[in-house]
Structures
1.
Amino acid sequence: MPEQQNAKHETRDLDVPLVTWFALGLVVAVVVFFFATTALYRLFHREHPSPFAASRIELQPRIIAPPPQLQADPTMDLTTFHAGENAKLHTYAWIDKNAGIIRIPIERAMDLIAQRGLPTRGPGTQNGSGKTPEQMQQQKAAATASKGER
């Protein structure tokens, strides 16, 4: 019992010399692996050099990145955006001159829809041609048959 009173740890559960040797072995293994990896890296780099040129970051490490492109005046930017959108809503302009498509002011468009109504399709049709789906299928079949005869 006098041995246990002098010891500052539990002697029955832990073998201190074994743990010390294990920790020392671990440190030695890490050092050996470090040097072995470094030697392999140098060997591979010497035997298989990169076919690509070094990057500009490696060649010029003191390149300063440009500052961020932040909005200087967000309120003015939003005002400009709204002005542009309102101009599109309230002015005439060509969308596609060759196809004859124009943009008209929204008030005028609402007046035209109120006067003329929305475009509708004929009864029983799925398109604006006035033909029923059966008529369209017959027409397609006839066109396919006439191409096959040629």
2.
Amino acid sequence: MLSDKMNNALNLQINAETFSAYLYASMAAHFESLGLRGLARWMSLQAREEMFHAIKFFNFVVGRGGQVRLTALEAPPVTWASPLAVFQETLVHERKVTGLINNLVNLAKAESDHASDVFLQWFVTEQVEEESSAEEIIQKLKLAGDTGPGLFMMDAELGRRVLSPLVAAALTGAPAPAA
């Protein structure tokens, strides 16, 4: 059973992960409006991945006998100055989420909630990947530029992104691939 403190904190994280999906969906819509379908695809898949994270938290709370309390989401921005600005905001956002996850780990340890601590370690690792991915794209956009052939090459590259088999299986209800 989750403590009230842990239950409340995990509910806040469900909201944060759902907002992340909302933010990335807005970024995808922004890229679609610019005709940058590859960048839009990358962000759309990122939004789906964030919903997967929210569902993981949701299922964990339910599985531990907690109470899920969904709350309103803040409206995300709808336009950005450039593709680089979008990914810079992505990195800032992912660093914020990393801090939230780290705070949850600290709370789990303070509450001697070993099950939550173990569950959260997956997210600790995931956040390293999320930040690294955003940093890599930022560096490439700085080299390629926000306009012209370099941007179109980045659009094509990012358009080749696919969901990880684990996320795809979870979102479609298909069996998860063997590890």
